Amino acid sequence: MKTLLTLFLALLLTTRLAAQHHVLVEAESFENPNGWVIDQQSFAVLKSSYLMAHGMGRPLKEASTTVKFPAKGKYQVWVRTKDWAPFPKGPGKFLVKIDNKPLQPVFGESGSSEWKWYPGGEIEISTDNVKLSLQDLTGFNGRCDAILFTDARGFTPPDDLDALTAFRKKALGLDDSRAEAGKFDLVVVGGGIAGTCAAITASRSGLKVALIQDRPVLGGNNSSEIRVHLMGDVDKNYYPKLGRVVRELDNGDPGNGNPDAKLYGDARKTAIIKDEKNISLFLNTHVYQLEKSGDRIVAVIGRNIATNRETRFEGTYFADCTGDGTVGFLAEADFRMGRESSAETGESLASEKSDDFTLGTSNLWASLPIDSTSAFPETPWAIPFSDEYHIDHHKADWEWETGFGNFNTITQAEEIRDHNLRAIFGNWSYLKKNKPEKYAKRELAWVAYIGGKRESRRLTGDHILTQMDIQDGKVYPDAAVTATWTIDLHFPDKKNTLYFPGEEFMAATKHIKVKPYTIPYRCLYSRNISNLFMAGRNISTTHVAFGSTRVMRTCGMMGEVVGFAASVAKRHQLSPRGVYENKLDELLGILKGDV
Amino acid sequence: MTAVRIRLWLLLSMISAAPGLYAQEAGRILPFPVTENDTNSYSLNLVVDASGKPSHFFRNIFTPVCFTGECKPVYINFYWDLLGNYVRYDLPPREELTKMDHDVFEEEDYNKLQEILANPESLLKDIAIEDLVSTGTDNLADSVDAKTGATLKTIKREVIEGAVFTCYTLWHIAYGEIVMDEMKRITASMVSPELLHTFLQSNNYHYQYWALESVIGSDGIPQPAYWADIKGIIGGSNFFAARSTLQKLHPGVLESGETQEWLLGLYAKSAYAFQVAILKRLSEVPVHSRVLETLTRELPSTNQELFELTLKIVGNQVRPAVVPLRQLADALNQLPTARAGEVYGLLTAINPKDKYVQSRLKSYRIQKEEF
After folding, report:
1. Do A511 and B146 touch (CB under 8 A)?
2. Long-range contacts of B32-38 (CB under 8 A, 24+ apart)
3. Could you tell me the pLDDT band of residue B301, with boundaries at 50, 70 and 90?
4. Which residues from chain A sit within 8 angstroms of residue B275, using beta carbons?
5. In A, which residues are within 8 Å of B306 by CB distance?
6. Which pLDDT value is given to residue B24?
7. What is the mean pLDDT of residues B253-269?
8. Between B134 and A434, where is the model more confident?
9. How are beta strands A365-369 and B54-67 bridged, if at all?
10. What are phi and psi of A259, to 5 degrees?
């Protein structure tokens, strides 16, 4: 482990004196994170994960690691961080310590929300190994991407993303150390409910499957990290065989944001996958690169969000169950993001003009009663609340939501989460101080630091499901998944807009009830990437139709169909489209239980 | 629940209380008869304190709450503030509330009822009672979530199980439009300078907004007699009232040195969002030298948004004083490159004759060229 953590790059510079050294330590690779958490949700923007002190207002213990130095001497220290709530200065303050001695600067309070390298001063290294630690000063989400030690005089590490990515890649030796996971019949990217169902179904159909998930747990929005309950019915199926795997994964309904993590059944989901001999599970692996040949994906490359080791996965078929449509995006699959206009789709519920509006992201939270009174810190950097406007609840539900076109759910995932945190902590601080009769004997038990996204890209298939398909109950020949959820398109809560225009964090909705309807198989594969399936919220629908298809039991059944379809495709050496064109009866036969 | 039964229930709920007060009140009580329609009239009571100032409204309520074809009587007293905002309830002596099967309310049920009634945005507002309960029972309907557009869990938060009808009936009495309008009308008829001062100085933001409408003209000019009260709101703890009041004022009101010094004092101790609001207002007016000096002195340590607002204030001055400009010129060496560039651009545009500023600009230029 140490060797992984003390990656250094000895740059032979053109000096006559000596080789000069850069020692790059990725914070997410610390040996003892001690409660600090890893966030990879902004990988698309940062090209890295980072370490964060998510203490809910209580400073965490020190995160530490051992750094091996190639040579003794003087080193300049650089710390890559940001002030996540610069209003005017944020709370995410931390110290960097070398062998328990803090560097002079306090990090995370610069007043700038940009990720940058900050100078940490000069240190003298007199031993081969030193202890590097991060001391959280606030418990409020201080964060660190990396620490660089350099003895190259006058060297400033790059902030420009391309230059930094190249520097990081070289320093970590990523290209040289990549592991080969092997060749799979189906590579499922995304271990949410859709991806997990796809992997299990394919495995049970005899396929060799890789299941890649970028978090340490399976379940996605239904995991204990996000805690959204499963919705959509599985008992109104046109094809009763569908929904069986969803039922296996279903751990009961603890509601949204239940403070008891166990109720979401992380262990159950992992155990089910571990029992599948045909599935190789790769947790903590974020897919960020792929190889193509013509219109086919040949392989995807994932990076471990903690160790930064890379793995390459070859596959015959790929399933994009990432939610964000990451694989499709990397493969240049056609996709849509935002709302179509009603002129474009003919949908009565579509917006007048097309735009970037998406449903938002939730960071749920919950408090629990305690037997004595407790205080919560002041949060001047958070969203302000008062008697006139505050949210008088001891826990969150789905309405706690940020996005709505104010933020991009992919490229601004970090800002969205941080906005949610500013709402949660600001409101909680207000409640604790001003409503002691109700909240003095309650404490925050849990606040999600991983955002539960609702909407991102929608990859385009051979069919795009519309509002009319849903409301007219059209049953196409390739009708596959039966969906039941209302058309549930959230929008900013009116009162919240009044107080926080353009910065809303509370949602409202209007449920448009639907009769059970079917989603055609053609919504579940890409129209221009010939070996790419998709399942989950990133399937081929309009924004309006997505409002109904997006709930997790329905997404899980999409995964099941993809698993079955991949097995038919493999058996006949067909593309996903080829299954529709040539072997639809066989696929439907499987769904009916004939086979 | 059939439509006929619903109508019957509505009819019964309109029966007003028997004469006689259940609420224990100090001070004088002025009864106001309210007639909602042909079959529903009652007495709305205004409590006036010993000094003759109106204090609050209350009503002694008797309403039958009906389910499964039977009606149970509910005796309850509601209290509203002077603008018709529900405040609390209590029960007449020896009265109690019951749930289905005559189960008596527990303490937590009473607390929950207060929570439900204190929420003016309750989902109960837009729900028809037929959609809320299963036919012939006081149980939440199975399909309540689909019908109402909220999740079943959200609805449960809004009602007491086994007392859905009671919650629904009482909420709609607490927020009845006619009675709320009547309370506003009565209070408006009693308005006086004293009442306005009381309202402005109160902690009740409803009172504050209502009084502000009277004491600040549509042109944003406040009545001088209330300026101290208005300042109290702007400097108060309710950020929303403070900001909206500040935003409402005519720019001319903010031009005096005294007012700007006061705003600067607030700026130093305010939450960030209010700091932004203050700087935005100052960017609309000629700013006094001392105030400008303080803002420019803090420039190197502010965040980007406040930095830009400060520069905007300086840039908007017709003849900015020399001291703030010198401070800006000094900041050229302290600021990160991008910010220094912005300051340089501003100073160049202003192009002051001051030799010190000009020499700093020149040094900055040379330094940049050398770099």
Report:
1. yes
2. B32/B182, B32/B186, B34/B178, B34/B179, B34/B182, B36/B176, B36/B178, B36/B179
3. confident
4. 88
5. 88
6. 52
7. 96
8. A434
9. unpaired
10. -65, -15
Give residue A17's pLDDT: 45
Q: How confident is the model at residue B20 (pLDDT cuts 50, 70, 90)?
A: very low
Residue B202 contacts A where some CB pair is shorter than 8 Å: no
Q: Which residue has the tokens 């002129």?
A: A343
- Judge contact between A363 and A452, C-beta under 8 A: yes
Q: Please give the pLDDT value at position A26.
A: 98
Segments in B251-354 forming alpha helices (H): 257-269, 272-282, 289-297, 304-316, 322-331, 337-350
Which of A386, A427, A429, A503 is most worth mutating to test chain B (most B CB atoms within 10 A of its CB)? A386
**CA nearest to B207 within chain A:** A388
Q: Does residue B114 sit at the A interface (CB-CB below 8 Å)?
A: no
**Closest alpha carbon to A546 in A362, A349, A397, A408:** A349
pLDDT of residue B26: 65
pLDDT at B25 over 70: no
Query: Cα dist. A91→A223, A416, B275 in Å?
Result: 28, 17, 18
B140 pLDDT more than 80: no
Sign of CA dihedral B94, B95, B97, B100: positive
Q: Are strands A179-189 and B40-48 parallel, antiparallel or unpaired?
A: unpaired
Q: How far apart are CA B303 and CA B300, in angstroms?
A: 9
Check pLDDT > 50 for residue B16. Answer: no
Given a cut of 70, is residue A81 above it in pLDDT? yes
Q: Is B274 an 8 Å CB contact of chain A?
A: yes
- pLDDT band, residue B18 (cuts 50/70/90): very low
Q: Average pLDDT of A506-518?
A: 93
* Contact by Cβ (8 Å): A532, A333: yes
3-state SS, residue A413: helix
Distance from A487 to chain B by nearest Cα, in Å? 10
Q: Encode pLDDT of A311-352 as tens digits.
A: 999 999 999 999 999 999 999 999 999 999 999 999 999 999
DSSP-derived letter for residue A350 is S
Contacts of B240 in chain A (CB under 8 A): 384, 386, 388-389, 499
Q: How far is Cα B49 from Cα B56, in angstroms, rounded to an integer?
A: 9
> What is the tens place of the pLDDT at every residue in A184-225?
999 999 999 999 999 999 999 999 999 999 999 999 999 999
Closest CA to B82 of B204, B200, B178, B187: B187
Instruction: Name the residue with higher pLDDT: B68 or A377.
Output: A377
CB-CB under 8 Å, B237 with A386 = yes
What is the model's pTM? Answer: 0.91
DSSP state of A524: G
What is the pLDDT at residue B300? 87
> Is residue B259 classed as helix, strand or coil in its secondary structure?
helix
Q: Do A525 and A462 contact (CB within 8 A), yes or no?
A: yes
Size of interface A-B (CB pairs under 8 A): 60
For chain A positions 256-275, those within 8 Å of chain B (CB to CB) are 256
Which residues in chain B touch residue A86, judged by CB atoms under 8 angstroms apart? 303-304
Which amino acid is present at A31? E
B275 close contact with A: CB closer than 8 A? yes
B337 touches chain A (CB under 8 A): no
Q: Which residues contact A355 (CB under 8 A, 6 or more apart)?
A: A338, A339, A405
Is a pLDDT exceeding 80 seen at residue B203? yes
Contact between B14 and B37 under an 8 Å Cβ cutoff? The reply is yes
Backbone angles phi, psi at A461, to 5 degrees: -105, -165
* Cβ <8 Å between B205 and A256: no
Q: Does pLDDT of A267 surpass 70?
A: yes
Instruction: Name, in order, each residue with C-beta under 8 angstroms of B137's C-beta and a sequence gap of 6 or more.
Output: B67, B68, B100
